[in-house]
TrEMBL record:
Provenance organism: Tachysurus vachellii (Darkbarbel catfish)
Protein name: Transmembrane protein 192
Family: Belongs to the TMEM192 family.
Cited PANTHER family: TRANSMEMBRANE PROTEIN 192 (PTHR31592)
Subcellular location: Membrane
Length: 272
């Protein structure tokens, strides 16, 4: 009998607590509409403008190689027009002009690499970690190719007189081979990079975490998830840790922005 009374009292107490919790407002003040919050937080997709730099650099590189081939055919490999070439270049040797243009092209490639690094770092802060990692090595290849080409040109130019004594115009042929191979390698890298950037801009996707939420909706039973933030057999531990650090950094920035927007909207509705 006592046990029944105790159970009844406990049931009445839990009912009263539930009713009191439901009756008491959890938030004092005006509620924020979901559509207003979504429209305030949703960011407009920003395209990556570096593809135009890659295309422009490709055109300049092709023009440089064309000038080198023309100078080699007219001024270096034949002795009939050497004086005319020197006069047309205001007393400057054609080989000196080629080297100066090569140095100027390397400076342009260096500036392009810095510009790409700046835009990709901003893209990483906006949460596009997958594309950032996909192009992490590709964006540095043009500068490495041009630097290696400069080193090879110096190796050929330094003993050019000795090479030409053994085989006539051997240094010229080697120089043209280096320049053409450098053009081919740089052309492939820049065109592949430009294609990836164009594809990224065309897709206009949201941040990686938003796309994962949209496609997988945090389903525990989904076995085809592509985030792979945990440690897997055969995966690199350093890469996993770096991925986690990038995601945590983005989520911290996103939460900070979200909190500021919520406070702004709450203050605006309170004034209204």
């Amino acid at each position: 009998m006592d046990s029944k009374r105790l159970l009844a009292k406990t049931g009445n107490l839990s009912t009263d607590l539930t009713q009191s919790i439901e009756d008491d407002p959890l938030i004092d003040g005006p509620l924020i509409a979901q559509n207003a919050l979504d429209s305030a937080i949703k960011r407009e997709f920003k395209t990556l403008p570096t593809n135009w730099g890659a295309i422009s650099l490709t055109v300049l590189h092709v023009a440089y190689v064309s000038v080198c081939v023309a100078l080699a055919a007219v001024c270096w490999l034949t002795d009939t027009h050497s004086a005319e070439c020197t006069a047309a270049l205001n007393g400057m040797e054609s080989r000196t002009l080629v080297l100066l243009l090569k140095a100027g092209l390397w400076i342009l490639v260096f500036l392009f690499e810095r510009c790409v690094q700046y835009h990709h770092s901003a893209l990483r802060r906006r949460g596009y970690l997958r594309f950032y990692r996909k192009t992490a090595k590709l964006k540095h290849l043009p500068l490495l190719i041009h630097s290696a080409g400069n080193a090879a040109v110096l190796i050929v130019i330094a003993p050019s007189s000795m090479l030409d004594n053994k085989v006539k115009n051997l240094s010229v042929y080697l120089l043209l081979v280096i320049i053409c191979v450098e053009l081919l390698a740089s052309l492939i890298c820049l065109l592949v990079y430009a294609a990836q950037v164009l594809k990224f801009n065309k897709q206009s996707l949201g941040p990686d975490i938003a796309e994962d939420e949209r496609s997988h909706t945090f389903s525990v039973t989904d076995s085809n998830t592509h985030t792979e933030m945990g440690f897997r057999d055969g995966s690199c531990l350093e890469e996993v840790v770096e991925k986690q650090a990038d995601l945590i950094e983005y989520l911290k920035q996103h939460n900070t922005t979200l909190s500021k927007r919520i406070l702004t909207l709450a203050a605006r509705q309170a004034r209204e």
